Amino acid sequence: MLLPQILLLGASLVGTPFQGVANYDSVIRELSDLRPLTARTAQVTNLVLRRDVAEFRLEDGTLHVLSAVAGRSVGVIFIGRGTAILNPSIRVEREHLNRLLDVQQLDAAFTSLLLLFADTTLHELERHLVFEEGALAKDAGKRVRDALEQMVDPKKRSADVSILTALLNQHENDLFYARFETHDHGPLVFRIDPYQPESVGLFRRAKGPGNHLEVVVQSRRQHEKPIEQTDPPPDLVSVTRYRIDNTIANNLSYSARAEMAIESLQDDVRWIPFLLFSDLKVDSVYDGAGAALLYARPAESPWLWVRFEPVLKQAEARLVHVVYGGALIERRSLVREMFEAARRSVTQRLATLPQDQWFFIRSTSTWFPRYGTRAEAYLDLTFHTPSKLLFSSVGDLVERRVDGDVRTTRWVTRRPESHASFNIGDFAEFKVTDERIPPVTVHMALNAHRELDAYFLAQKDPQEQVATDIVNSLAFFTDLFGKPVFDSFYATEIPYSHGQAFPGMIHLAWSTFQWTTDEGYDEMFRAHEMAHQWWGIGVDPLTYRDAWLSEGFSEFSGLWYMQVILRDNLKYFEQLERWRKELIKRRDDVGPIWLGPRVATSDAPWAYNLVVYQKGAWVVHMIRNLMLDFGRSSEEAFRNMLRDFYETYRGRRATTGDLQRIVERHIGQPMDWFFEQWVRGTEIPVYEWASTTERSAEGKWLVRLRIRQRRVSPEFQMYVPVRLDFGAQGTAFIRVFVSGEETQVELPPLDLEPTAIVFNPLESVLAEVKQSKWD
Fold first, then answer.
1. Full DSSP string of 632-694
2. What is the pLDDT of residue 8?
3. What are φ and ψ of residue 284, in 5° steps?
4. What are the backbone dihedrals phi and psi of residue 94, each rounded to the nearest 5 degrees, phi first?
5. What's the rounded Cα separation, in Å, for the pair 582 and 470?
6. Confidence (pTM)
């Protein structure tokens, strides 16, 4: 019998609760062994299942309920003809869908659909379909196994974290996972994940090796607030405080005992996943009364699952202790590794290389159990370290002592922090005091650099070179933006090629101590990391979409510092030009700044640095020039805006919308068009401009400009400066409002004839500029 088309909308969350207490290994095993049941089979014709922006049309086929997990049926498999339709509600996401899958709206045929859920899907199906004994659809078992490969690994005892969270906690919520095979796009996954701030997502299999998924589309649910409006995070718990006793032995073995103060944010929370560096082994977990807690630590996994007994109720507070340790820190030879990487590992040459001069911290973020990497907590950190080595950490140093060959230090943060790390090494210590700034301590691997000097170019007095930029950038940014959050700072060397910032501490790459390039890169790099004390730590981005408020602002701040400290405008504009060329070259390949880390896809893994760092810095530069008072050659308005933004959100999280409102306050007009184009958009205009000059009957000079705008949408607009040069008589600036395909402007009559006209001076707009003849 043909069933009429049915719309399954998913209303109240009702149904039979899980029975008993879920066991981690049994859930993994049952999830891995999911199989279609012939005893619960239904024939389906013209049935529609809707979830938020997605619609699944089951046109003709067989549907099997899958075997139970933790005592409950949580999945079905459909084999037959079907169509998946998805139309993202946000323009940026529609454009990213087109960029990755080459479609404006997903409308994809599929031959199988696996559904896993903690919502009412099965109850809705049971109301409209007849389930009975039936033959197993062709390849149904294989289709289930193939789909499960991307979400469960039985050998490693691990699975998709959100699905495990729902199953282990026996939650009935909106979790919905749909995996379907398409002809044009391969396997796709649509999911609603109530444990994520942006819970709606479409995923594809990433290109290249491995089997991991990458985001194609992501947003909040349609009934939820817009992304820029804050909502409490959908977390299970909040870790409000850590007290961690850490030991680093002479052989660098690491061990720790972490006490976490936890407050439950939901009812009926039994299992909680914590992030912990995969090579750290857990010895025991126990509660505040000393009673052992069950836990699961899958092999090669960054997850530690802890089971709470009794179950946590909303607003309930508990103490949890985790005892763990392992190979967190390694001592290796940086020079040897570079020679080996360069394939110059001649045995005789390697024998002469220095041995084990550098201390590699293998994880600077998950060296302690974390519930989400963005969660904020007060930190009370005690470290027992070899007294011959120097050590630094986030927080205020409130206690220190040396007993024999062990140095004990205690560091306490005065506010909840989400970024926390430390550094240790055979360092030389240089203390810097300057009345303009808080005290700064520089830790440098001086002896290791003496070994490096035999193989690489070395700068004289590297500690002074680095310290000078740390001090000057700290003073420069304090004057520009306002007082930093912290009263002392550490700048410490790491044997990696990147930098990283933490509250009151920055990690700097070894290379910036070894040499300083002529291009100004090292001055920029050092200042960029220091700028994070304002952008990223002082003012923290609210969401991943706002990452440019940290990285783009710090990149611009480093560029600005380099311009001022080197007194070299040429290097400033040369750097902007390098970024501009690369951005124009890649403009059709990458997404907008507002995608944050998602802009780096398997098609463009390099895009995060180009877009969020470099284009982000370009956007700040454009705001700088928009607010420049050409008449007085003053940047006062821009500086006031930055200081206002920092002081308004100091110690808080901010969004792109928050910045927009601050800019509008100081610029005196709506700026939604600017942020839509440059932060949420990807277009970069081409300006073809021409000018003509003639003398009027009254003896005045009449200048006309024509600007043709290319490679952007018709509504694209921008204020572009024009400089008029009058030789020894000076210069004059005007701003031209450019919009549409062609803009023509006639300037007010001039007393002098311009000797030259420059369109878009000072690289004021990220654009291609071409001069043409007047016609």
1. TTB-HHHHHHHHHHHHHHTTEEE-HHHHHHHHHHHHSS--HHHHHHHTS-----EEEEEEEEE
2. 42
3. -165, 160
4. -60, -40
5. 29
6. 0.93
